[in-house]
Design a protein that fits this description.
The protein has 177 residues and is α/β, with parallel strands linked by helices. It contains 6 helices and 7 strands, in the order H-H-E-H-E-E-E-H-E-H-E-H-E.
Amino acid sequence: MSVDRSRPDPHEERNPLAHLSFRDLQPREERLRRRPIVVGIDGTTHSALALQWATIRAFAGRTSLHVVHAYRSSVSSDPFGVVYWWDPAPLALAEQLVARAAAQARALAPTLTVTTAVRSTTAAAALIAEGREAELIVVGRSRTKWFRPLTWSVNAKVARHARGRVVIVDEGDEVLV
């Protein structure tokens, strides 16, 4: 008589953690530590402060830093819509800005892993998309208008739609170096 092993034996001991992966068994702090910190930059002094804050936080938390910049590509056409051309200048400027920001982060924390991304979309959409798996998203506070009744600021859109935590860095915030 053969034994059918396709059905589980009701008397056999079951491991209640057998369905979990090794990642699920790690403490929450360890899992969070491996997720990067995303920082949005746009070349202003507020984004420079956000970059500095995020760099120090990533270094202190032993995680990586992901620098994101969004640009608007310019596609033009002739008056009849027959010929289209694309201007590569905004992309080149965006890549230079991100490379400069990554160099600043590496100068502040030489052992930190810094990655970059340039997206052709709005700033809020780029930060939300890049920050889906991030520990937190860091942005600088913009002081252009204190009240925007018709359009929301980038900070408000990111804070509303991001999956994780969002930190908005202001000029008065302390940055420990």
